[in-house]
């Protein structure tokens, strides 16, 4: 089931996301989320049509989530958002990322959000394929822009016109 996230989903979202922080370069986050930090993150998005959060739930367990967030806090960027989707590894290849993104893009108000950006750490062919299926186009690669686990990493920027 795909649905809008609420504060009660904080621990479940963390259960999906924190392993990516600890073990993966898929996110450049380095500090794990605790319940209070995730609840604050969710509360900041509550009621926002521009920055929705959706979860995939199965029998009460959060299997994945997606969100839109501010592209940049400066005012002129307000019509652009960054989007991301994370699915727990044991739920990969079940179409959850696709269904989450379908919900997210259906919810984004086209008269308010003009562009969506997905930032993908290279290489990640599965994420590239997902984004391209949703109409994203590769517009740039920032070489060695991040460093995690002692490695410099490239980030591919994908853009979607809404």
Q: Span between N and C termini?
A: 25 Å
Which bin fits the share of residues in helices? 25-40%
Give the mean pLDDT.
Answer: 95
Q: Give the strand order of the largest sheet, numbering strands 1, 2, ... along the chain.
A: 1-2-3-4-5-7-6
Shape: globular
Order of helices and strands: EHHEEEHEHEE
Described by strand count, sense and barrel closure, the largest sheet is: 7 strands, mixed
The assigned CATH architecture of one domain is 3-Layer(aba) Sandwich
Low-confidence residue ranges: none
Within CATH, the superfamily of one domain carries the name Gcn5-related N-acetyltransferase (GNAT)
| CATH fold-level assignment of one domain | Aminopeptidase
Measured on Cα atoms, how large is the radius of gyration?
15 Å
Portion of residues in beta strands equals 35-45%
Number of helices: 4
Q: Total strand count, please?
A: 7
Structural class, by secondary structure, is alpha+beta
CATH class of one domain: Alpha Beta
Write a compact overview of the structure shown.
With 162 residues, this protein is of the alpha+beta class. 28% of the residues lie in helices and 35% in strands. It has helices at residues 10-23, 35-45, 96-107, 125-133; strands at residues 2-4, 53-58, 61-70, 80-87, 115-121, 137-148, 151-161.
